[in-house]
Amino acid sequence: MQSDYFISISKRLNHLRFFAATLIVLFHSFHRMYTDVKDTSPIISLIEEGHTAIGLFLVLSGFTLTVLVRNHDISYSGFLFNRFLRIYPLMTLAVFLQLFHGTYNEHRNYTWTHLVSWLVPFRSETVGLASFFPQIWTLWVEFQLYLLFPFLLHFLRRYGKRYILGLICFFLLLRLVYFCATGEVRYLSYETVFGRLDQFLIGIVLGRLFLDANVDKVDPPKIERRFGFTLFAFAALILIFSIHWFNRKVGYTNLVSSHWIWWPTFEGAVWGCILWSYLSIKIFINSKFLAFLSKSLSWGGAVSFSIYIFHNLVIEALLSSRLPLKWARDGYGEEVWFGLLVVVPAVTIFAIPSFFIIERPFLLLKRKYLR
Fold this sequence. Notes:
Elements: E1 5-6, H1 9-30, H2 42-48, H3 53-69, H4 76-104, H5 112-119, H6 137-159, H7 161-182, H8 186-191, H9 193-214, H10 228-249, H11 263-280, E2 284-285, H12 288-302, H13 304-320, H14 332-363
Helix pairs in contact: 1-3, 1-12, 1-13, 1-14, 2-10, 3-6, 3-9, 3-11, 4-5, 4-6, 4-14, 6-7, 6-9, 7-9, 9-11, 10-11, 13-14
């Protein structure tokens, strides 16, 4: 009989990465057919507002970097070099493909200046015209956060967690003042570091709390509690129903709602609760099926970046093919099942060679940056 084994923290983080990538894929697949759906089902609301997974990615990013660094000093150049290797090889491939497609298939005649504008980590003026890779804007925000991370970690160590709390409060106040001055704050909150920084900071604080709770030992963790699963279920219910409320009352297309002032912070806090409670559950596996399931989800998380980069291209290929997909276009539920049973597996399969051929060789070039 196969012996029990504990699901490691790294595997659990990959589980969450794959969940986030899946939610993003379902979000874009669903919105190929429907927009501004105000359904009574919380599950449909979660998929329609699947962009919320960006918040989970950013919380995971702040958490993971903080735990990896632990109490070491950071070589700034080495840290950025590794972050460059993590993002830019695959991103550059996608950018070239998008610009060549725009030039030769859409007759937009992009030049080297447009290429530079896509590769510099600031929003390009032509990203709204992208057919297959409009989601790259999140990578620009992510890299801006990488530029800030060593400083944020230094200030956290020097001034304590109250500094991070103060920074979050300041950005809440800043968005409030901006809303009062302009009458809208949606783009600032949703697509820039002025809103997304809160979520990254929440991940950093959770990473520091995790290290404090585990006395600098990551695996196995000491944060498990008897009520870990109950806390996770409670956090999941808060997530589902808060997203459902947001979908019914606001929606991601609402550009003038004042709720965008506080929503990024709340969203990041809820995902932080999901992260912390999931890491707190005592999960042991004593069957081959569950072991295979855990390993598969972990591999899905490992290739989640390739999933994120290429999913819109694969979705377009599926919808443009001659496959009998009409059955998936007759209702919200059928569209969701189409996404789960067709789109997500197809994107994941495509992401596997992308990871091994494009991502992994560059990741193996990473160098030490901790002192």
